[in-house]
Amino acid sequence: MSSLDQSLAGAPPATAAERPAQPARLWTTGLVAALAWLVLAALTWQWPNRKVGFADWAYTTEFAIGVAVLAAFLALVAVLRRRSVFAWLRPAGPWLVALPVLFAVWEVVTAKLALLPVPFFAPPQALIEVYADDWPRLGDSLVNSLWLLANGYVLGAVSGFLTGVAVGWSRALGYWVHPVLRLLGPIPSTALLPLAFFFFPSSWAAAVFLIALATWFPVTVLTWSGVASVDRAYYDVARTLGAGERFLVLRVAIPAALPHVFVGLFMGLGASFSVLVAAEMMGVKSGLGWYLQWAQGWASYSNMYAALIVMALVFSGLITLLFRLRDRLLAWQKGVVRW
User: What is the reported pTM?
Assistant: First the structure.
């Protein structure tokens, strides 16, 4: 009996629990992605590799099995549509279809047809070999790079924030600092590598200084701009209510300038990545930049590509964490500031 018939008969309408459960619709994009990954697995497994010189690509079978497992997982998600996993994967649906196509092209032009010269180009399974066999050296380089980046970035961000607040608040201090910013700001930090390695006692300390300098400039300029652009009416209202100089800085100027501060932090983080790699290539004895130079020197281009992928994933993760921090700290400004 329909709800209309029940209402005409005087019976109460059926509750949500009493209504028959609607069958879950299939995730079409997920099924297409699962099929694409399955085709990639079959292509990798069934098409023999073309051996060129000493190149014999190991882990081909393992790569195919891993891709097949991923295809089965996507098919399962597409059929069951579990809320937690489905909500996480659904926005990436088009990319889940495009990635196996790109991997298939990569696999065909390298391992299957050898259209690209060896050893400059390696297939995807060569990266698995690097991660499986050389993970101690690569992991140690990653840890050292993160420690070096953390020291330089935090030092530059804190000093840049304090400088920006001071310059934005005090005209007298801005008079002396502004020419320094104009003089040193446009100079790339990597151009100061020889001077830094000469004046600092160790290459690690010189790298920390250069990363901090690359972070300091954008954070200082954007913080200064944020403090200087605060509406004067906010200060007038706070003074009317009896606020002092310290309250105006800590509770009015800094909160209002935080969107600008985070823009400077994003810019400083991007600049610190490039300086980090350049500094590690010049003098630091361990790190992702050093690993890239070492791999290039030994013509281990698969190691170089593996390090580049790790670098991209880690740096992208750090930017995502900074976005999360911004969203949490500036949640009170939603609706006021464009996101």
Answer: 0.81
